[in-house]
Amino acid sequence: MAWERLPGRGCGALHRCLLGAALLLGLRLCTELRRAGAQPPARSGLPGPDPRPPEPPLPPAPAQRRGASRRQVTYVRSGRRAPPGGGGSGTQEPGCCPPRGRPRRKGPRWHIDLQPWAGPARSLDEEALRFLRYISTIQIACDHVSTDSLATDSSPSKKPWSVCLDDRFGLGHQIRNKQCRLYSLGLGSDDTHFEVSMANDGCEVHRFDPTVKSAHILESERFWCHRLSVDWRDSHPAVAARKPYSNTRKLRTILNEFGHHKIDVLKADLESVEWKVLENLILEDVFEQIGQLIFEIHLHWPGFEVSGSDSSVVRFWYSLLKELELQDFRLFHSYKDLSKPQLFLKKDIFNASSCYTLSWVNTRWK
Length: 366
Description:
By secondary structure, the chain is an alpha/beta fold. The chain is built from nine helices and ten strands. It has helices at 2-36, 62-81, 124-135, 171-176, 193-201, 237-242, 251-258, 274-283, 310-326; strands at residues 181-186, 204-208, 216-220, 223-226, 229-231, 248-250, 263-269, 290-298, 329-336, 355-362. An eight-stranded mixed sheet has the order 3-4-2-1-7-8-10-9, with helices on both faces. It has a two-stranded parallel sheet with strand order 5-6. α3 (124-135) packs parallel to α9 (310-326) and α8 crosses α9 (310-326). The protein is elongated, with a radius of gyration of 38 Å. The N and C termini lie far apart (123 Å).
């Protein structure tokens, strides 16, 4: 009887083994189908081996948050590079920007903002008339204009270099305390009457002229002469080594080398280099370090490295002077030199002289 029960027991075990194998086969098939992507169930945000993002939007995974952070940094950088006044995206930038109005530019700019044309014809007559009216119109009254440097004789070498000594602009106070600084930029001029007068009054005077015989000469207790030419660009070191008498520097470079943070008076007689030097001072935002500005401008030709039609040249000149006004400089003295040829871009128009001396004061100077 024991022998008869053995087959029954073996048969039941066989059935259980087949049933288990079928179950395992079904689970394996189901797994393969899921891996093959046949009607996968909706995911709940669990990570899986498939690198492709799912079709429906899901809560951001850590990698997506890092991507969002990168996009935010790009937005802030592009906001800083955007030109003043907006442009591009209409999204309000976060509190990174100055108040509305003319923004205070920091760092170098790349070009001058040209003013609109004086008239629809864009002619020389329109531009010249606007420019000459502008340089002949006093913008702010100065009650105490220095007359020590004004010509008192008939010598044509004497130039009317004028400074404003009103207390509201601080120069008179600085002179009395012997704390003022004057930079004089020239090209071979022998007339140092103005510089000597300011040094005697108590100013620290630095005269820059490439024709000076030595690198640095102390003429008197407060009067230095430097063999340097102030230009709109720095000279290449190799060129400066070969030609020591033609050493050129930008004014920003000289200020950094001398360790000077401000100039109470900047006087310039650069013989037609003044337009490019003015442009450089504007582009590098140097004028915020200057209290008063005295420039001799020359109008008989466009000037060094200034080109274009006559009307576009005068528009460029006018735009430079308007930049001074936008930086809170106001014209307080204008002198028309009648001893020079009466030519304006080689033309006899509007009774204009070829040379004017203009004086501005920085109304924000402290």
